[in-house]
UniProtKB/TrEMBL annotation:
NCBIfam families, per database record: HAD-SF-IA-v3 (TIGR01509), Pyr-5-nucltdase (TIGR01993)
Species in which this protein is naturally found: Thalassovita mediterranea
Protein name: Pyrimidine 5'-nucleotidase
Domain of life: Bacteria
Upper taxonomic lineage: Bacteria, Pseudomonadati, Pseudomonadota, Alphaproteobacteria, Rhodobacterales
Length: 216
């Protein structure tokens, strides 16, 4: 990985889930159960139908919540509170990751399709509290989710992000298309690479990737 590819970057945007903690933590296993239950209760459908709708809305709109809002006028506040009430007990603090994030030059933010309060809990469990200049959840984009262009534009406008001086780290390859379009460096953080012209770099180890970026 050419370190010089990031020489111009002084604004760093990190997704949260499966990016700032490893996928084997499997937090989404808990969240998906909560989402399915919420869909069952709200729409009065059985589990099989709720699972289908949850997956269908994610694929169609970017998040289950976006589909529920657009097709069923669901209030996002109670939904976000309910689905993120999960146990974080098995998350481990990562002091090496914290050190390398701290060493990145410039401004650092978290931008998640989850809620900002949930993001703060995860960051605390990972030992990453206080390392980021701002934390943005889906509520900061008027509940529009990544990968929508308008969602990125709202959050980046609020934060003052200059895309041609910024990099985006994200586990969902769909959510790197707009950052690439805007002129950001894109890093896909996932166990397996994804082919796409909108992905500049791939890593299955964010800590090691940042270590190479910050090495003197």
């Amino acid at each position: 990985m050419p370190k010089q590819d990031f020489a111009h970057v002084d604004q760093w945007v990190f997704d949260l889930d499966n990016t700032l903690y490893p996928p084997h933590a499997r937090l989404f296993d808990q969240i998906e159960v909560k989402m399915t239950n919420y869909v069952m209760q709200t729409l009065g459908v059985d589990q099989a139908r709720a699972d289908y709708l949850r997956s269908h809305y994610w694929a169609t709109y970017g998040t289950t919540l976006a589909g529920l809002m657009r097709e069923h006028d669901v209030d996002p506040g109670p939904y976000l509170t309910e689905v993120h009430e999960i146990s974080l007990d098995h998350l481990e603090q990562d002091h090496d990751l914290a050190a390398h994030i701290r060493d990145l030059p410039g401004r650092k933010i978290v931008y998640t399709n989850g809620s900002a309060p949930y993001a703060e809990r995860v960051l605390a469990a990972r030992g990453l509290t206080g390392l980021f200049d701002a934390i943005y959840g889906v509520e900061h984009a008027d509940f529009r989710p990544k990968p929508e262009l308008e969602a990125f534009q709202m959050v980046f406008a609020k934060d003052g992000i200059t895309p041609d001086r910024a990099a985006m780290f994200e586990d969902d390859p769909r959510n790197l298309a707009v950052p690439h379009q805007l002129g950001m460096k894109t890093v896909h953080v996932a166990p397996d690479p994804h082919d796409g012209d909108h992905i500049h770099h791939h890593t299955d180890d964010l800590t090691a990737f940042l270590q190479r970026l910050t090495a003197s």
